[in-house]
Amino acid sequence: MVVLSASAAQAGRLVFSRSLQRQISSLTTLALVQPGHRHAPVLTSSGALGEACPDTAAAALRRQLQPGAVTSFRRRRPGRAAARALAAQLPAELAADLAAGRGWTLFSCGFEDGSEDLIALKLEGGPHDAHCGDILQAIWPVLREDSLRELAGETQAAVTSALLWTISKKTDSAVLVLDGEGRLLHCNESGRDMLDGGDLLSDQGGRLSCARPGETAGFYAAVAECARARRGSARGPRELILFLEDRQSGMRLPVSLTRYRCAGADQPLVVAILPRQPDRTRIEMLAQKMGLSPAEARVAALIQLGLSNREAAHIAGLKEQTFNTYAKRVLAKLQSAGRAEMAQRLTWQASLGRAS
């Protein structure tokens, strides 16, 4: 979508439709439309007047998509209130001629829900000027839906793309999308890392297996139960929490299973989310971004793992006294009251997203 001018960008009233431009080009090079009249944005078939559109306009467009059948279509007289109201939302170079009806013709189309579209065509002395009303009446119901879906869809596509990118690239939780039978359909990068490691779940051609073989049957039973659940039904919850044992640490980790019903899909999906413990490399990177030196960051990462100073010093290749000195410096720089607070802060920071 394209906003026509800077002032329109703030008001969120003027948007550009490529579909409108393509389909109405035989009548005019510039058409203006106000769907729903007084309650919606103005559409234009000219793309030369701006570059972007706010989300509020997209929401208004979506509300206009199903007004019911057409109940009336008529020509509006120039210079009246409808023309002036439409002109008031336009750049000055267009507004005066439209308000006065100079070189423009204005139509209104009413619908069952009581809403009314205003359509203004700029006349250019072409062969269809005398019949533009008849042509417009024939094509308008389909044309308006195409235009509104295009404009609403562009913003929605951008929003969806941003969400999918964040889930795929930035979140440090493993996200798996499964069908009702537990087959893997898609996962984000953290999910792929987790599956490749195989310490909790592994992927064998779309078939998931738990690291502890005895848990696999229970995992599939939980996915099937989640997929069958209905909103407000006594048959079961739409979200289940399942605990699986991590092979490396021996810890039992929670897996959230949530039923997701996509519009237009025959079968529900199940989204599995598994929180991941950030690795030491990521903790070190975040600690450096928080102002620690590389050596101090290594010490902070070892403390975050819950190791004693003696154990951590041995891993770091430092004397215990030297490690203690670094540890005190780390706590001071991070303004933490103790090891637990520092570890919690680093863990929280690491859980915000993957390394960029």
UniProtKB/TrEMBL annotation:
Pfam family, one: GerE
Keyword set includes Magnesium: no
Domain HTH luxR-type: 289-346
Listed InterPro entries: Sig_transdc_resp-reg_C-effctor, Tscrpt_reg_LuxR_C, WH-like_DNA-bd_sf
Keywords recorded for this protein, A-Z: Plasmid
Keyword DNA repair applies: no
Top-rank taxon, per record: Bacteria
Record-given protein name: LuxR C-terminal-related transcriptional regulator
